[in-house]
Amino acid sequence: MEAVSGQRNDIQGLRALAVLAIIVFHVNQHWLPGGFVGVDIFFVISGFLITGILARQKVRGSVNVLSFYTSRLRRIVPAYVFLLAIVTVVMAILLIPRDFDSFFDSLKSALYFNSNNYFNSQNDYFAAASYERPLLHTWSLAIEMQFYLVLPVLVVLMPVRFVKPALVILAAIFVLHAEYQLVNDEKQSVYFSLLARVPEFLIGSLLAVSASGTLGGHNNLKAWAGTALLIFSVVCISEASRFPGFLALAPCIGTALLLSAPDSLVNRWLAGRVMVFIGGLSYSLYLWHWPVLAGLRYFLEVYELSLSALVLFAVLTLALSMFSYYFIEHPFRRPSVPNVQYKLAAFSALAAALILAAKVTNPLLVPPMAVELTRYALPETICHGQIVGECLRGDPQGSREILLLGDSHAAQLNYFADVVGRAINARIRVITASSCIPIAGFDKERITERARRPCEEQTLALQRYRDSADAVWLAGMWQYHVPSEKFLRSFERFLSETEARRQPLIVLAQVPMLTSNVQRMHRFNELGSARTAHLENTWASANQQIANRVAQHPNAAFFDPAVLALFSTPPIADGRLIYRDNHHLNEVGSNAYGRVAADLLASELSRLQQVTSELKIAAP
């Protein structure tokens, strides 16, 4: 077993390429669709460098595992803990309590480098969107630290002659396993999986222990081939790709080829002063760019930032990164720092104090909103993604049964169903699932993996009640669903099936959507940043597309609440807040909607029952 040694500036340049690709992708995924493979470049570099250190120690006859872990902790932890403390303080001010609680859960996982598993487990429909989660990027650091726990043990225990074949076999097994999971539609699980990422480290490790055989001639050829693979990866791979799996081999092999060609023309360019400077900052840039970006997006409530916001992002990211590098990261990395363990302990204690203070402060900064304004129902009492009892609302002794189904826009109608059901003497069975219209053939690939099983289960549960229901009501966030051709086909089949059963069907329009989350608006206003909410414009066209399809079926009707006075001045009606965010009603709104819609729905239902009765008589 041989290992490469010596300081290499071209590796700093490669780090610069990796972090710049990641930042560009995170700013706007359309600018560089595969920029996220910068993480894979980092993993290969880490495997190469760390295995090289351990291999050289093994060649000398002794692997100092304690020294290895100490050096990794000094390299990673101080800047990381500083980031977590500062971000927690800022988010305590910025986030509404529900979002801060979710943030704090991610923080606890990040503190012990388990955030990859935390984010893989998340399926909270109402949590901040993924691009607003300040610690989402820590998943890769978690994987790196988890790998560091395993690698020294492998090097120490493995006989020298078995190291290379073991690395090849392990990498092959884990790549095949990742590809198998991707084929079985487990993309999110694979993306955050340590096992799926191990081959990326091992490619670097294999290069490190095969140094004498790979650092020879043809450097320019290898470097240009590696460059071509990296260009292919950042341009042609995208979030829609089946990744990591086999496809991850492209950026990983490309990185390995560049690492194996230190004297090439490409690597000389990578070793230039600007690239080396950026590469030196790469860890701090990676740490800070994402929380700054997520915080701006949360505050501005947009994904694509304006030019002024982009300038602010760049200035904040660079300033925080340079401060972190020169005053936190670099000082703690110096071997000559006296009493470093005591300084690190004191530093960590201060960070812990800031984090705990922020936790206490968040709910106290702004007077809390009444609970009925922040939710549409108590989650444990409704059949949303789960079956709780009989899922019945309205009049338990009602003379007829109505089936209300859909996504969270149907789930928000549980109190609505109570009001309407009692008014029209009906039992209303409400069965819903996050992001899912639980009908046969629904496009489950568009929703998160964690939402798919509840979607399937609710779809199966509905089959028990579908045929016996006196009528069906359907509600959804149509602007999310209509872009999917697969959904539109399943929706058409659903319409045709209800018509074939001569079953009255009322499709409820998506409620008007606002430009601002009302809970955030409340917090920002209280903090002195004036905010107002206006109607957003995409929901209306989606409603029209659904209405056009419904109109083709005589047993069906489209009911649009936008014509009601209740929605004339959203998010307020009769002096009270009726929305819980920017597109869901709260408990107050759901009740109010039921009161103003009951008579209209009763009239529409009577008309449809008359139509379906005539259809039954006319049927051969």
From TrEMBL:
Main location (coarse class): membrane
Family annotation (InterPro entries): Acyl_transf_3_dom, Acyltransferase_3, SGNH, SGNH_hydro_sf
Alphabetical keyword list: Acyltransferase, Cell membrane, Membrane, Transferase, Transmembrane, Transmembrane helix
Residue ranges of every copy of the SGNH domain listed in the record: 388-596
UniProt name for this protein: Putative peptidoglycan O-acetyltransferase YrhL
GO BP terms, alphabetized: lipopolysaccharide biosynthetic process
Organism: Pseudomonas reidholzensis
GO molecular function annotations of the record: acyltransferase activity, transferring groups other than amino-acyl groups; hydrolase activity, acting on ester bonds
Subcellular location: Cell membrane
Top-level taxon in the UniProt lineage: Bacteria
The protein's Enzyme Commission number: 2.3.1.-
Gene3D superfamilies: SGNH hydrolase
Bilayer topology term: Multi-pass membrane protein
Keyword field contains Cytoplasm: no
A GO CC term assigned to this protein in UniProt: plasma membrane
Transmembrane segments: 12-29, 35-55, 76-96, 165-183, 189-209, 246-262, 274-293, 305-328, 340-358
Positions of the Acyltransferase domain: 10-325
